[in-house]
Amino acid sequence: MELHHSLHSHIIGKGGRGIQKVMKMTSCHIHFPDSNKYSDSNKSDQVSISGTPVNVFEALKHLRTMCPLTVYMKLPWYNSGQPDLRPLMSQMDLEVSVEQNIYSLAIKMSGSQDASVLFAIRLVLHHFLLTEEYINISTTVLAREELNYQLENIEEHRERCDLPDYRNVKNLFFRLREVCNKNSVTIQTYPDTQSISVVGPPSGVLNVRKMLIGLANVTVQFDCNVMDIHYPIQQLEQERGLQIGCKRKNGDTMTITMKATESKLAEILQSRELLLALPPTTYSCPDDYDPNPMMNLSGPSTLTPLQTEMASGVRVFLTPPIESPKSPDPEDSPDIWKKKSKADRGEMLIKATQAIFDDSVLSSPRYPTDLWSGYGFSSSLPADLLKGMMDLTTNEPTTANTSSILMNHSQRGLCSVREEDEELSDFSASSTNYGMSRVFEQATRNVFSASTSVFDSNSLPYDLQWDINYFTDPSMVLAQLGCSEYMTQLRDQEIDMHAFLLLDEQNLKDIGVSTIGARKKIHHAILKLRDSARLNGYAV
């Protein structure tokens, strides 16, 4: 397949982990050209995938899913003040620049699902009080020089479209032009940079981008015996519009090469089955490179239920709110008024963040308590300072403002709080509902305990199991092991829970865990959590 050389390092990932994950999932061997490491002038875009036809088809889709997508748009803002973009920046990778009253935004995400991308775009437009119909976006598709030339000279192909080699041009390039005209999308080619700029309405741009990716060349090569060919090759070439080449090898062995565009990969694999008289196979999602009728501009501006479900794959917090709870509402309980409701965890975190950005309260000192910890965790541990500056007595009555945010479950222990600029990993998604739900206290506390964060710091029982559904953050693991002093090194390396589970003892030593005992304890916990993650269905 053709994959632009500038995307290779992004897909391979740090230490090859990205491509190793794809090879493990699809049972295929994927090879990137070695010449790109040593030559800066001639870069190769060819990527080789070896495996069974079904696995090769899935591997190619995974590689396309990992390709990054950046969407650019300019949005006007005529209201008083400036729009608060902090909530958007905490939910997606967003870059903003302002010129007068025009905000230039760049949204970076994975181009795996158009419905997810469209959902993120509409979320930004809703924040600016704008609708999709009056806004144009732009994106860039990396393509080889040959494709740029074909798009620039599409009219010249009209005279040659009856020839076998140009039969696909009539079906694909002319259809691409029809889709551009229908959706008011403009295509600009840049052969020098091997890129294609697509500008237009959001739905139309995503449709055209999908078709441009489908125009990339793909080649299927396999060996077979001459006696295994049961269909005329020339007839198959004319019927399917493919370019088929044959080359003799040793004895009766023959190498057959089928070439077409990426959008016709499923058809190539089916042609191979027809040629060799193999049982037919149905390949999933044959319309991945065709315009999606569900995303037409004439449709409603809100997402359909199917698109909403697909959009959940981008980020957990891009998922639309649930309108009606599936579980019984605790407020319907007859004992609701006998209990005192505690403050919602998310509400308290928002109040703490607002307090930091409020300039009116800077004149008076603010000290962390067990209700408010400032912005995330505190590295200074001011517990002793609080004892000296605040009058903490055991006889002081406890009010609703000094109650703990979470219940003191003996089987729960520490509960971590994420900072707003930290990404949620797949492992934290399972604990979101627990962290944001409303909880009630059964008894009042008699002693005010100062703490450096918003969690209650009682220790876990000795026989607690290492459960990935509970330990959702490296800080919780280090706190349980008594190794919290190494949390700074993990944050400097930007290690989330997913990366934490991939560490070994040598990695811990390189990060800065200096003592052997600490490395042994942390690595033992990682192995236990890794087993728990596999039992819960996480890919580790």
TrEMBL record:
GO terms for molecular function: RNA binding. It comes from the Eukaryota. Coiled coil: none annotated. Pfam families: KH_1, SAM_1. InterPro entries: BICC1_KH-I_rpt2, KH_dom, KH_dom_type_1, KH_dom_type_1_sf, SAM, SAM/pointed_sf. SUPFAM superfamilies: Eukaryotic type KH-domain (KH-domain type I), SAM/Pointed domain. Keywords: Repeat, RNA-binding. One of its GO terms (cellular component) is cytoplasm. Residues 466-532 form the SAM domain. Belongs to the BicC family. This is CBN-BCC-1 protein. It comes from Caenorhabditis brenneri (Nematode worm). The gene is Cbn-bcc-1.
